[in-house]
Design brief:
By secondary structure, the protein is of the alpha+beta class. The chain has one domain. Helices cover about 15% and strands about 35% of the residues. It contains two helices and four strands, in the order βββαβα. A four-stranded antiparallel sheet has the order 1-3-2-4, covered by helices on one side.
């Protein structure tokens, strides 16, 4: 994660960053809920991937877009990760 980029608690009230700066090809999602998304973004020419839990992609886009404004860009947000039903996993908790 770049030093000048962080999601404060106000913008994270609808999302939970599960893991930052992951390698999407080797990311183990077998113990995660199906509401996990992978966001691909750039900051200063460097590429990053984060695993983020959210009720919708719009919540992820809004938070990352606001914080990347002027320093980076969102490339993509992909769903289809995780194996556990979100209800069985628990509610999204931004404090984790």
């Amino acid at each position: 994660m770049p030093e000048n980029f962080s999601l404060d608690l106000l913008s994270r009230n609808k999302l939970q960053v599960v893991e930052e700066n992951i390698a999407p090809d080797s990311f183990d999602d077998t113990e995660l809920p199906t509401d996990v998304h992978i966001i691909h973004y750039t900051v200063g020419g460097d590429t990053y991937f984060d695993a983020v839990r959210s009720y919708s992609m719009v919540d992820i886009f809004d938070s990352y877009f606001d914080h990347l404004s002027g320093i980076g860009n969102i490339i993509s947000i992909k769903s289809g990760y995780g194996r556990i039903k979100p209800r069985a996993y628990g509610k999204i908790n931004a404090d984790k």
